[in-house]
């Protein structure tokens, strides 16, 4: 039962950890918080479950939660109009007819909408989770009930993780011809265990930084044997994952964890890149007094011209109510800073990794940690001062808020378009290389008009009279 | 056991409903969502519970939840600096020494901070809940563990409700001399059942609209037999309960229920009073396109000058993604409007009561209701169109978001000051009438300096270098 | 020729100064800057001028400037839609037919639109200026050319001032039956010199604080012998003269005088009333870092919740680039503050009078004053430090920017409506007292529909599809 | 006297026009409006003038205006701290000692600060104007009075233009070794007439798009015989000339020309590039309702997420109060659009050239043009409708507002640094090519520390405690 952990990857256990922490960085624990994970200690691998149509072609926590999961999917559909309109369009044409897609992503309500859209376009899908914590069990159950071969649950062991991936790939009488990956673990598994599968694969679509990095390495080493599409580096994804998304999730994450009032609070934001810009704009708008630290002169200039005082962290550390890091650097907030914060100061990280706040320096005997709520720790100094640390310094927006469905919709639509393009591309259009999605797909492929429309629909905020649709009308077709 | 529901009030059952829905309007269900209410079906009234010091002078859901509740109280203390500094000050002087306060309020982490502050100032307290749903069981347990005589749990029956109040008032060898009420039910109960208690009562402090209304009626009828303090109509409370609070809670409420992205969404806000101003400012700041409906010419002018298009609801109803009511009127959103909304439109109410959206008109056979999440219903038209109705049209901010601790801190501090003032006032200062808290308390009472400081501290946002403290320094003392 | 200065008012010369400085506070010198005042030293009173129709019933600087003035009036008409639609409506009905109005106001393009509207409604008008500096000579010429009996020019002496008023009132064969006043000087003159005129007067319409104050004093003393309408205290006027107007004019005034860039500048605004709120909002929006000083706790709270740091002036005086006063108090900026400002700091006043900045303290031998531009002085310290003082501490928005036509349009329309109402009111509706314009005029008067429309049109921003018109549609008629 | 117009350039007269209109696009007429150009019809070339030190080595309109011009220069110095601190630093070291700079730029108060700084650094300067209209005569007089050899006045003829340039280059006993150009006309003249001068020239510094374009052409053709520095394409210049500058100048330009109130106005901004973003942000902040037209999907998405409705121009053209173009395209606003605008609609251009509004289509017999103010035309339709056209469709910010001194300071400092670098660079560092200023100059040149400091000082907003200085402290030195 433990065989899959023995799988000889180059970097072993650390490779897994890293791929999880870097590709998906942190679990979507808040989105997953609707999941009741405590009720049942039996491993899904040992359960016998059947959906209402009699199929057992799946492995989820509890198929009986399907109804609840269906509701979550329906909520998600409300803000994923591009995928839904793609689905409608597919009633006549089936651009993925014959496609056999093996996927490995977070399994949430939003990815469920993607998976069911791929099915509606004609594809057969087998799916596993790219993170051992991020699966919404009810959503997985709903997918299983709807007939998708899904193998995932919240709280997988490392062995479970690889077992699930294996169950998606290694099937009698079914061979994948497309890969949709998030983090590169699925791709890695196929490379190592089933290299022959690549003979049939028409392409890989990869979303994450880590996965894309791995693909470029393969390509450089001459080992990439199929075309791959880099979804990570599209403009829309970059803007949304940073500026627009963080503008909303900083508020959401702080509110859900601390119920803090923003009005009148003094906040210092470390770093004025896209993430910092989003955080600052939102907090300023709600009445906080915001300071910025920044070492790049151009970004500092922008902060200055946007009306923020640019300071050294040490200048304001005694007076601020909230400290937010988003620099991409290490140890931006040091133990010395933490020592000087006032009582009840909130500290959190919106940056790239969990190293911006020197949390390690707080794990010393003289400080008491008190877990007061999920993702909220009070760190208590000998004199009684408390610092409120969120998500132990990990990414606040992934740990303590949900990513807006609309943002995920953009990535999901791009993934669907990439799959359609790779699957239908005439031979020779794509070599064994890593590609960016063409900005305008109108000129190429068997689905030019569809894709053209869709690439624009990506930006449509859920309404037929929306700006995007107006854009569409402005563009030549 | 059911005897208390038989209690002959004038309006009977409806009186209770009204007092609950009007005084506290809606339960703080979101704040209470941390409460696990499903585990135990035994009524607290039938349980034998003892705290760690051996006392049984309370009735709560589960005394074992005290530790968790203590954590919630500690979180709340972080943003209630005025009460905490009042508490510190009381270490020498005990302005409420000898006070026996019977209270009836929501029982949440924030009111717990108030109650424990009153105790620190020298008072003895007995407490019940003013709403059958709003009690945070863990917080009640923490209060009981700390020795407060608290009688409250989430999900009380109507009989339980009056029983709890009665347990606070009707005690051998202990007689209340102060009342702190929220909604007027406690006051009402004492009037009807124990009128003699008023001989010892030095004053009533009342927070809610409904309770204050009842007091004025009593006063008008010549039946008010003690002084009463109207906390509801203070400037700070009005501003905070409306403009500043709603500016934050509209975002919080929408996000927690629907995960909707605000950027690019088209929103119509019905009504541009203080609540509407708050909602509009927040949504505009986060990139929504906001329309306003307003019939008052001055408010319409303000909306116009603030950069919002003032429209008739029917003009934009087909295109908007979100509809928010805050007019204070009835049936602002009619069935006809609902019929014309587009698929996935979100409808919610931030106004005064639950009648702004004509929800009744949606309870017809041709429409299907689907509860997709707590406080979220999809109402489905025959053609498949879904409208997303939040909190069944009740107040979104009370039902689906937490009220910021800082806001509650203001009211709580005002309540404490009112109690101090009434309890210490020399005879003759207050007659049998309803009073507003004096704007400056410096000239009166035995605690002039304290109260003066406190009335300023109310606005202090949790920091010793805060604006309020600077104000303080500017003011003559 | 100098006889009019000998006129025995109670307060003599100071009365005049005060009425000018308080009612109109400062001259609209910027609006008047298009006026070429240097070419001609001959007093208009000594000139013989005739308009193109042969009339000499006026006294202006130079009738030949009429064409230029007509252009200015046409520009003003573009943003005064309410008056223009009132004018159109009057083509059939002449609600002021028979009215003989004597007026005394600033004479600018905007008041010219008012005067010509009154004429179009059927009135005969005679007009003088309420301020010796504020007349736009070209506009006065254009009015004279159009046949209005106007007596005003820029740079009148005190004797000229009263002479012009007298020429309006004291006419053979013509007796006024309505008064439109701004500051009360005209009313005062009639009271003292021609009390019999009041027998025919149906009412006084007064706009300024000072004038209204005088009327209430008369009323209190039992000496008010006709009804008077207080236009000053209407909600729209208050909001516009303060919040909305200052939000724009602070930017305009600073830019025109100093060409300063707002982005990144540190600004302190003294006072957070309506004027301060407007200044802060505008500067914050354009990227300035804004501090607020405020002693009123409620206003300080608002500043705090709006995201401004509330400080003591001395805390930030060394670092700020701009200091703006709008407190209504005296000596808010003292010589000590001025001594501590850094080089090139800009100091200006948006408040009530010219006493907020202690300018007198700067008129000492060790400081050098250098007039670098109209309304701009460099005050130079012995060490070379320069402070940039605008308008010598007088009101920046009146001295150095134009008041937006739309704002003036609101007052002008209100004045016109008040004249119509008073002139047409049935006997007995108004006593010898001071009235506010009824909020809704629909129920009263011979022009109910007209007035109802007009009171709404006041808020119409120049467009037939404007918010206000939509409001209109929402209102019952 | 007319000989210089006969100078045989390739493109003759049109070359001149183009170079003027493209390099400097439009004259700084507003800044120049302080100039009294009407008093004197004698050509400066025919006047004999001497400054107070007896020198006649200049040619300006009127040397007697020097005092007024000195005041303007002093105002400008207040917001040009980087140049001033560069000047102070040069008291010991003279990095431009021996430099003989011939310059051709706009001659305004801000460039005067640059020229005088170059002199303070040790250079000798001879200067002419790059635009026949943009010279501030008083400033030119002040420079002449201070001993600079300046040859420029407002309203030069084409012959005058080349004559002034020639007088700077063609001097007995003085030969330039550096060129500072804006538009390339000076460089062009030297190439054609005095190619031998290039033997001594160490480098050219060029600011404008056009001039840089010409330099790249020369370089490509192998004809560039000295190193050249492209100042135009620095990040700071790009951001300032577009986003930050336009955010302020759109308000300033509209206000100075029309006195329009922004609050409540409906505005359509065509194009959401950096200029459009600046315009939209400012107008939204002041209460306007802003629509955006945009054809690029990414920019449209940004507009959408920033809260602006993205529309087709024809959808809103009937209802808007203001139309602003900033697309960089031609005929964005067509005659058809103009025909459909409502009365009093304001139309202006903030974009790249004067072709965005099809002004030519308005020069037809049925339309009447009425010049109502400098830079403001009413175009009147047969039915009386007026459209308010600003600056005849030329750039509003250059024609009708001043460019903030701080913005010009950035470019000026960059120019000074480029001159220092080129003049002091060891042989071989720069070839005969076009260079960008190194982002960090600390590693190179004889003035590493100075330049390093200065490149940071560029962003310092006039205060020693400013953000930029804090940046400075953060940076390693």
**Average pLDDT figure of chain A:** 82
Question: Distance between the terminal alpha carbons of chain A, to the nearest Å?
Answer: 56 Å
- Low-pLDDT sequence parts of chain A: 7-38, 440-477
Number of strands of chain A: 15
> Which pair of chains has the greatest number of interface residues, and how are they split between the two chains?
A-B, 59 and 56 residues
DSSP helical segment count of chain A: 17
Classify the oligomer: homotetramer
The main β sheet of chain A shows up as: 8 strands, mixed
Structural class of chain A: alpha/beta
Strand proportion of chain A, as a percent range, falls in 5-15%
């Amino acid at each position: 039962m433990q065989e899959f952990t023995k799988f000889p990857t180059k970097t072993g256990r650390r490779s897994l950890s890293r791929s999880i922490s870097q590709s998906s960085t942190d679990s979507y624990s808040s989105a997953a918080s609707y999941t009741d994970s405590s009720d049942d200690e039996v491993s899904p691998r040992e359960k016998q479950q059947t959906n209402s149509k009699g199929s057992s072609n799946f492995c989820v926590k509890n198929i009986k939660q399907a109804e609840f999961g269906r509701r979550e999917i329906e909520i998600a559909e409300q803000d994923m109009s591009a995928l839904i309109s793609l689905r409608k369009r597919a009633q006549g044409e089936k651009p993925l007819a014959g496609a056999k897609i093996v996927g490995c992503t977070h399994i949430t309500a939003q990815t469920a909408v993607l998976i069911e859209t791929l099915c509606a376009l004609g594809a057969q899908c087998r799916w596993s989770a790219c993170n051992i914590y991020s699966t919404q069990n009810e959503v997985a159950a709903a997918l299983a009930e709807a007939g998708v071969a899904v193998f995932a649950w919240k709280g997988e062991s490392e062995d479970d993780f690889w077992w699930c991936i294996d169950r998606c790939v290694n099937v009698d009488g079914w061979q994948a011809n497309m890969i949709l990956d998030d983090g590169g673990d699925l791709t890695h598994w196929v490379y190592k265990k089933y290299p022959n599968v690549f003979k049939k694969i028409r392409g890989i679509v990869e979303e994450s930084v880590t996965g894309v990095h791995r693909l470029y390495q393969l390509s450089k080493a001459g080992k990439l044997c199929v075309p791959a599409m880099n979804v990570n580096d599209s403009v829309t994804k970059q803007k949304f994952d940073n500026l627009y998304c963080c503008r909303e999730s900083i508020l959401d994450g702080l509110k859900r964890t601390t119920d803090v009032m923003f009005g009148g609070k003094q906040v210092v934001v470390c770093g004025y890149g896209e993430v910092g810009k989003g955080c600052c704009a939102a907090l300023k708008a709600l009445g906080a007094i915001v300071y910025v630290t920044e070492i790049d002169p151009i970004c500092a200039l922008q902060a200055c011209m946007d009306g923020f005082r640019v300071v050294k962290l040490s200048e304001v550390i005694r007076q601020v109510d909230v400290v937010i890091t988003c620099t991409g650097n290490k140890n931006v907030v040091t133990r010395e800073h933490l020592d000087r914060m006032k009582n009840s100061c909130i500290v959190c990280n919106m940056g790239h990794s969990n190293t911006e706040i020197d949390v390690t320096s707080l794990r010393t005997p003289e400080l008491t940690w008190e877990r007061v709520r999920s993702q909220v720790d009070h760190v208590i100094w000998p004199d009684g001062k408390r610092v409120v640390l969120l998500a132990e310094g990990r990414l606040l927006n992934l740990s303590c808020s949900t990513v807006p469905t609309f943002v995920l919709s953009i990535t999901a639509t791009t993934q669907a378009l990439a799959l359609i393009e790779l699957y239908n591309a005439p031979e020779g259009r794509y070599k064994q290389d890593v590609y960016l999605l063409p900005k305008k797909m109108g000129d190429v492929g068997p689905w030019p008009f569809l894709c053209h429309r869709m690439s624009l629909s990506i930006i449509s905020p859920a309404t037929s009279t929306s700006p995007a649709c107006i854009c569409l009308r402005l563009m030549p077709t």
